[in-house]
Design goal:
Length: about 375
């Protein structure tokens, strides 16, 4: 199956270079090699391969190469300047596709800017929308809850194989990627933090509370959370506020790109699956169409909360509550629906007998609604 970014990237490669990022093992290399088939003389180079690394440093790829794929290029010191020079002096029929497991500029801020030379696309795990036409939406939700959306464990269809993959995946992340950006003595604390976060999905993240659990300073917790977020292990959803600065200061909620790694009941895992689908949806609109759209949650001072808010141009567009089987509109969602009458309010229910519209709230099948997203 072609991944959902195949056509958008193919189109953008005709205009500029493309930078493709995403979590480890989400399918970036597979997608890049599929896109190679669209070209007459493709050249794939992986910076982790010594021979390929030499070619990248010398820029000694074939003269007739019409696409050059540079995989894991962010590991090269001064990669921005190197790529900028290669791109600016390229032949007219040559394009570049760069891939990396984490944000290519997160920890490599030095060097020349690539501004105006590239389009950025973020590749996400499978979602209900991407699986549409192959699996029933409700069955997709069940499968994503069980296996997560990463291709290898999902396609295995085996919980044992998924567990084996997950054990190896997170061991490698801690041993290689996290260790690259922190001191050896910090690895144990980050590992413990990761275990704590697995159980706190969907809850406002108190750095002070976690600091007490780990016996470290709150600012250190923030640093470790930033590392996990930058390496695309977790993502943060911040509260909606018209004043962006105030929203940043308030406690975010944490979710994992891999729903299969979440520890909790089925409802908590379902919320994480919905969060990944929603983030994938807004990222697709941001990267492919330049939309100023964002994902938040909503909480009042007296504790009334709804799971997600999609905002456009800093204005609420959609309010979303996620439930496993409760088809009665939540009290908080009804409150906000009356407070924001022009904003769509829906309660996504996985095990739903029938869809209804009650007191300004649409009660919808989670799988069916998620299958209508953009990606």
């Amino acid at each position: 199956m072609n991944r959902y970014l195949y056509d958008p990237i193919k189109k953008d490669l005709l205009k500029k270079m493309v930078i493709l990022t995403g979590p480890r093992q989400v399918g970036k290399t597979w997608l890049a090699k599929e896109l190679m088939l669209e070209f007459q003389h493709p050249q794939y180079l992986n910076y982790d391969n010594p021979d390929d690394s030499r070619i990248i440093h010398l820029q000694s790829w074939p003269l007739d190469a019409d696409i050059i794929i540079l995989d894991e290029i962010h590991k090269m010191k001064g990669w921005k300047m190197h790529v900028k020079g290669a791109y600016d002096t390229r032949q007219s029929n040559r394009t570049f596709l760069l891939t990396g497991s984490s944000r290519l500029d997160t920890f490599r801020q030095t060097g020349e800017s690539l501004a105006g030379r590239y389009f950025h696309h973020r590749l996400f795990p499978f979602s209900v929308r991407e699986l549409q036409g192959q699996i029933d939406p409700s069955e997709s939700v069940d499968a994503l809850n069980r296996f997560g959306g990463f291709p290898e464990p999902f396609l295995s269809g085996s919980e044992a194989e998924a567990a084996r993959w997950r054990n190896q995946y997170y061991s490698d992340l801690i041993r290689e990627d996290i260790q690259e950006y922190s001191k050896i003595q910090e690895i144990r604390a980050i590992r413990l933090l990761l275990e704590l976060l697995r159980k706190r999905v969907g809850s406002p993240l108190s750095y002070t509370s976690i600091a007490g659990d780990l016996q470290i300073a709150p600012n250190t917790v923030r640093k470790y959370v930033d590392i996990l977020e930058s390496l695309l292990i977790i993502f943060l959803v911040r509260p909606f506020h018209a004043n962006v600065a105030k929203a940043v200061l308030k406690e975010p909620k944490v979710y994992f790109y891999d729903s299969g790694y979440v520890q909790g009941d089925e409802g908590k895992i379902l919320e994480n699956t919905c969060a990944v689908c929603l983030l994938k949806h807004i990222s697709y609109l941001q990267d492919g169409f330049g939309e100023r759209i964002s994902l938040h949650y909503l909480k009042t001072r007296d504790g009334k909360e709804i799971d997600f808010v999609i905002a456009r141009e800093d204005q609420p567009l959609q309010m979303i509550e996620v439930k496993l089987s409760d088809g009665t509109p939540s009290r908080s969602l009804r409150l906000f629906a009356s407070k924001y009458p022009g904003v769509a309010a829906c309660q996504l229910v996985h095990h739903l007998k029938r869809e209804e519209h009650i007191q300004g709230v649409s009660i919808l099948s989670a799988g069916t609604w998620l299958s209508t997203l953009s990606a």
